[in-house]
Design brief:
Order of helices and strands of chain B: EEEHEEHEHHHHEHEHEEHH
Low-confidence stretches of chain A: 279-319, 346-364, 682-712
CATH architecture of the domain at 1-84 and 161-169 and 193-242 in chain B: 3-Layer(aba) Sandwich
Structural class of chain A: mainly alpha
Shape of chain B: globular
Number of strands of chain B: 10
Shape of chain A: globular
CATH class of the domain at 1-84 and 161-169 and 193-242 in chain B: Alpha Beta
Low-confidence stretches of chain B: none
Radius of gyration of chain A: 30 Å
Strand content of chain A: under 5%
Helix content of chain A: over 70%
Strand order of the largest sheet of chain A: 1-2
Largest sheet of chain B: 6 strands, mixed
Strand content of chain B: 25-35%
Bound molecules: adenosine-5'-diphosphate, magnesium ion
Number of strands of chain A: 6
Largest interface: A-B, 33 and 43 residues
Structural class of chain B: alpha/beta
Mean pLDDT of chain A: 77
Oligomer: heterodimer
Number of helices of chain A: 30
Number of helices of chain B: 10
CATH superfamily of the domain at 1-84 and 161-169 and 193-242 in chain B: P-loop containing nucleotide triphosphate hydrolases
Number of domains of chain A: 4
Radius of gyration of chain B: 17 Å
Distance between the termini of chain A: 64 Å
Helix content of chain B: 25-40%
Distance between the termini of chain B: 28 Å
Strand order of the largest sheet of chain B: 6-7-8-3-9-10
Mean pLDDT of chain B: 89
Amino acid sequence: MTDSNTINTIIERKHATKTVLIGIYSGLVTLFVCLIGMVETFGARDIIGGIISMGHTMLIIIAVGSGAVAVKTLREDMSTPGATINKPAFLVEIFVGVTTGLIVGATLSIFVFATQLVDMRSVLINVSPGLLEMLTLQQPASQVMMTITVLGSLLGGIGAAIFNINPRIRLPLVLGLTSVVSLGMLRDMLKIVLSREGWPSVLLNFLVKNQGLSIAGATTIFATTVALVIIWPHLPKIYDKTVRIIVTYVPKVLQFAVSIIFTIALTMRVFWFIGISDKDLPILPSCQAADSSPNVDLAKCISILSNDVSTTSDLLGTNLATLVSTIITVSEILVGSLILLCFIFAIWNIRQNANLTDTKSTLEDPNNALLIIAKRNISAFFSVALLVSLPILLGVFPSEVLLNVGLYMLMGFGLNIVVGMAGLLDLGYVAFFAVGAYSTAILTSPRASIELGMSFWAALPIVVLVTGATGLLVGAPVLRMRGDYLAIVTLGFGEIARFLFLSDWFKPWLGGAQGIILIPPVSIGNVQLIGPHKLYYLIITGCLIALFISARLRGSRVGRAWMAMSEDEKVAETMGINTVYYKLLAFGLGAMIASISGAVFAAKLGTIFPHSFNVLVSITALSLLIVGGIGSLPGIIVGALVLVGLPELLREFTEYRLLIYGAILIFMMLSRPEGLIPRVRQTRELDDQELSQDAWLHDKNEANNGSSVTVT
Amino acid sequence: MQTDSHPILELRNIDTYYGQIQVLRQVNISMPAGEITCLLGGNASGKSTTLRTILGMVTPSQGSIHFRGERIEGISTTELVKLGVSMVPENRRIFGRMTVRENLEMGAFLRKDRKEIEKDIERVLNLFPRLRERLKQLGGTMSGGEQQMLAMARALMSRPSLLLMDEPSMGLSPLFVQQIFKIIQEINEQGTTIFMVEQNANMALSIADYGYVLQTGKIVLNDTAQNLRDNKMMRKAYLGET
Ligand SMILES: Nc1ncnc2c1ncn2[C@@H]1O[C@H](COP(=O)(O)OP(=O)(O)O)[C@@H](O)[C@H]1O
Ligand SMILES: [Mg+2]
C-alpha cells in the first residue's frame, strides 16, 4: 500500500507545516505587541493586584491561543470528507499545541537574548528596560531563556488540552476566566462606579486592590461567573414558574399596585436624579468627600414635580424627606440587583421565543396567552427599569460612555432604514448628523449670526424638518444609482458637507473652522440637562422611539416596498411600487433620525466644529450595522455597545484603540460574517436553503416521472 | 385577420432607441381584448424592448401607445400597473429573499382589500397547486419552473386585465413548458388578455390567437396563429422544419 502511505505522509506534512506556520504567526504577533509597546503599557495595569499584569495576561493569551487555534485547524482539516482519521489523537493534539507554544516561547526568548547582544533601542524605541524586566521577570536574561520557552510550550499545551475537556466544565472555566480578565481590565470603571455613594463601600474594598482586582475579589468573580453559567440553563424554567405563580396566586389588584408603586418610585428616582446639580455627584472617586445631604436633593426633586421650590420644601418636613430618600437608596440596590437578574431572564425569554422549539408544554397550558403576556410585560418593565437606572447606578463617567453609545445607536437606527431596509448603501451619512448639529446650533446659540436663541425643544422640529429636506436633496440626484456608485457618490456628499461647513463662504453663518459656540443645554422645566448622566435620558428616549419606528416600519407596507426595492428595483416597479418615492422616503427618514442624534450632540458639547463630522463617523455607523448584522435591530444595539462602548471603556489605551478596534472587526468578519446577532430572516433563509437543496433531488425525480400539474 | 373585439392595447409606428442605437422600427402591434397575442423573434430582435416600451421603462422616440383608446406613452410603470397591466419579467426575477407568500403579497402591493387579496391568493394557488406546498419557502430556493409559476402567480395578484409575459418558456424543461402554457391558456380563458413574447414559436403559436414576427426591430410578418403555423417561411425560420 505504498500509495496510501504517501498520501498519509503528505497529509501529515501538510498538517505539520500548518502547525509550524501558526506557531510562527503567533510568535510574530507576540513580537509585534512587544515592539509597539503594548505589552509594557498594559503591564502597568494589573488584572490581579501585585500578581499578574495585563501585559503578562496578553502574552499568556497569545500562547494559549496559538495552541487552541492550531488544534482547531487540525481538527477542521482532518474532518474533511475523504480523510482516513476524522479526529486526531489526544497526544497528537497536545503535541501540536506544545509545538506552537514552543515556537512562541522560543521567539520571545531569542528576542530577549538578542536584546542582550545588540542595543535595539535606537531603532525600536519601545525595547525599554521596563519591557525586558517584564519579560524576564526580573531575572538575568541568560537564565530565563529556558524558562520562557518551557512556559510557552506549557501554555500551548494547555491551549490544546482545552478542547479535550468536557464542555460542561470547559464553558464555565473559560467564561469565568474571561470575566476575571475583563473586570480586571475595567478596574478603573469598576472603582469609579463602586465608590459612588449608594454602593456599599465593602464591595469596593473587597474587589479592588492597588492596580487590579484583589485575590479574594478575583476568586469571587470567578466563582460567581461559574455559578451563573451552571444555573443559566435552569433560569428560564425558574422564571417561567415564578411568573406562573404570580399569575395564578397573586391577586390582580396587588399585581397592579406593585407595578404602579414600582413605576412611581422609579420615576421619582429619575426626577430626583435629573434634578440634583452636578456638584452633588461624585465624578471621580476623589470627589466623593464633598457631598451634600440627600434631603436637599429630594426636596429639589419634589419641587421640580410641583414647579415651586420654596413652598414644597417647606411643606415637606425634613424627616419625611430623609425617610423617603433612605427608602429609595435601599430600594435602588435591591432594584438594581433584581433588574440585573430579570434582564438576564428577559434576554433568555426573547431567545426562547425566537426558537419556538419547546412551546408545546406551555401551549397546552390554559393560561398560556396570559402567561406570555405577563412574561412580556415583566421583561419589558424591567428592561426599561434597567435602562432608566443605569446612570443612577453607574455615575457620570460610565454615563458618558453610554451617551456616546446612544448617539451612535440612534444613527445606526437611521442608517439601518437607508442601508438595511431600503438597500441604499450610503457612506456619507455623517452629513445628516452634521446638518442636525449645525442647524441646532444656529437656531439655539445666541452667538449665531441670526441670533434666534431658540430653546432646544422649539428648534428640534425645525432641525428635523430641515435635515429631512437635506436628505431629499441628497437623495434626488442619486435616484438612478445603486451599489458601488451610490456608495462613492454619497461618500463624496459627506465630504462636501464637511468642506461647506469649513468654507470661508459660509463663515459668517457657520463659523468656518471655529464652528459655533455657546449652544445652550437642553432644559426640561427649570432643570437643565447638563452632563452625560442627564442627557442620557434624552438619547435613550430617542433610541427607543427610533427602535419603535424601525420595528413598526419593518412589517409595514413601506417596509415591504423597501425590501422589494432592495432586491430588484425594476421588478419592484412592475409591482406598482413607486421607487422614486420610497427611495426619497428612506433618505428623508434616515436623515431625520440622524439629525436628532446631531442635535443632542450639539447640546452635549455646547460647541461644534466641522472637524467632528469626518468620514469616520459614517464608517463607524456603518460598521456597527455590519458587526451587529445588517437589518437586525438588536444587532444595532449590540453593535453600538461593542464598537463604540468598548473602545471608550478602554480609552486609557488611547494609542492602541484603533488597533484593538481593527482586530475586533477582522476577527468578527472571519468568525461571524453575518454579524453578532444575525437577522432572524437570514438564518432562516440559510436553513431553508439547505432543506430545499436536500429536497431538490427528490423534486427533480418527481418531475421526471411525469407528475403533471393538476388543472381542474 | 384581426378579430372584431377592440384592442386593449395598441402600438402604432413605434421607434425606440437606446442612445444612438435604434432597436424598434415602426412597430405596429394590436392586442385584442380577451385574446392571446404573441410576439415571436430571435435573440436581440427587440422583443424585451417592446415590453419595456409598453411599460414606460424606455420612451419611444416616435409613435404612440394606446391603452383602451387613451395614449399612454411616457406614463410611469406604476401608473400603468394601476391601469391594470401586469408583467411577468424575463428570467422570472421573483424576490428570492421573500417567501412564496410574501412574493404573492408583493404582487398585490397596490391593492388594499385584504379579504379579496386572500381570496386571490387562494385562486392563484388553485391554478398553481405546486406553490401551495411551498408557501413558506423562500423564492430563491425554488427550481426554475416553480419560479416561473411564482412569477406568473405574482403578476396575477394585481388582477390585471392585460398580462405581459417575457419568454415564459426560457430555460425550462419541455415538461414544465407544457404545464406553463396550459396554465397560460387557462388564465386567458378566465378573461385576461395576454401578450406573450417568445422564442419558442411552436409552443406559442399552439395557444395564441394572433402572432407577430419581429426581426431586428421590424415586424416582418403578422397573421393569425393558424396561418402562421402554415406559413412556409415561418416553418423554415422558426418552427424548426428543414
Ligand atoms: N439597456 C440597453 N442599452 C443599450 N442597448 C440595449 C439595452 N437593452 C437591450 N439593448 C439592445 O437592444 C437590442 C434588443 O434587445 P432585447 O429587446 O433585449 O432583445 P430580445 O429580448 O429580443 O432578446 C439588443 O441588440 C440589445 O443589445
Ligand atoms: Mg429578451
